[in-house]
Amino acid sequence: MDCRSIGVYDSGLGGLSVWRELRHRVSNESLIYLGDGKNCPYGGRTREQITGFALSAVERLVKEDVKMVVVGCNTATTAAIETLRERWPDMPIVGLEPAVKPACLATQTGRIAVLATEHSLSSDMFLRTARHYASGIEVLKVVGRDFVEIVEANAEHTPRAEMAVRRVIEPLLGSGIDKVVLGCTHYPFLREHIERVLSGSGIDVIDSGEAVARRVEWLLERYDIKAPEGNTPTFKFLTFADEEYRKRIEYKAKQLL
Ligand code: DGL
Question: For the whole model, what pTM was predicted?
């Protein structure tokens, strides 16, 4: 039993899509969410830069005495997960990878699309996973242009969002794919638009949030660090940006519940 919080980290607001899954799955666990905000978006940055941001973020969460860290960011995971695990070998650190494996196992057409940031799609980790699970399957790599910026601007429910999604998703219609993987934690916030464009096409959307929450639940059990039954969880929100951004994270989180 362990009452300490689980730390959840992302470049910005996107990791709240993982935070929401954790709230549902491990609802008596306290959570400390760190949305960098100052250096977001990470997607076009170098591996070295992202690794530096991720080290500072996890360091900050460790100072808060977290018992586990969930890197709720595919981009930071592909860049830095190995470095983070080397630096904190005794703490469970869960990473997020685009759900290539389930999509490859489920595809009937032998063709899938992975939507993610530029960095994630060109990372060694992604290429390794794709090589491993996607032999004989064609993987279309698609960058969600402007998606992260839209979510960061809280502009999901605007014509800008609708247009950006149409620009990226419409070309996938008729491409022969039957699965689209949301490989960035910001993208689930645009899921409604994505599904609207895909409706009637027979293309399914696959997201990793729920699978990660299940993995966290399993690790809590395995390390024997679950919060006790009946624990009243607390929620804290941190950022490297300013107080206004911190409040935006908190507000968005509350809206998700
Ligand atoms: N939410 C992040 C991800 O899952 C990164 C977005 C960004 O900062 O570019 O990849």
Answer: 0.96
Instruction: Establish whether 184 is a catalytic residue.
Output: yes
Same domain, 199 and 110: yes
List pLDDT tens digits, range 1-30: 899 999 999 999 999 999 999 999 999 999
Spell out the residues 6+ positions from residue 96 whose beta carbon is closer than 8 angstroms to its own.
Answer: 18, 70, 71, 72, 73, 74, 77, 185, 208, 212
In a domain, 38, yes or no: yes
40 CA → ligand 1 middle, Å: 8
Q: What is the pLDDT of residue 82?
A: 97
pLDDT level of residue 223 (50, 70, 90 thresholds): very high
Ligand 1 lined by 249 (C-beta under 6 Å): no
Q: Which atom of ligand 1 is nearest to the CA of 120?
A: 10
Cβ of 95 closer than 6 Å to ligand 1, yes or no, is no
Q: Verify that 30 and 106 share a domain, yes or no.
A: no
Distance of CA 251 to the CA centre of its chain: 19
Active site residue 104: no
181 Cβ below 6 A of ligand 1: no
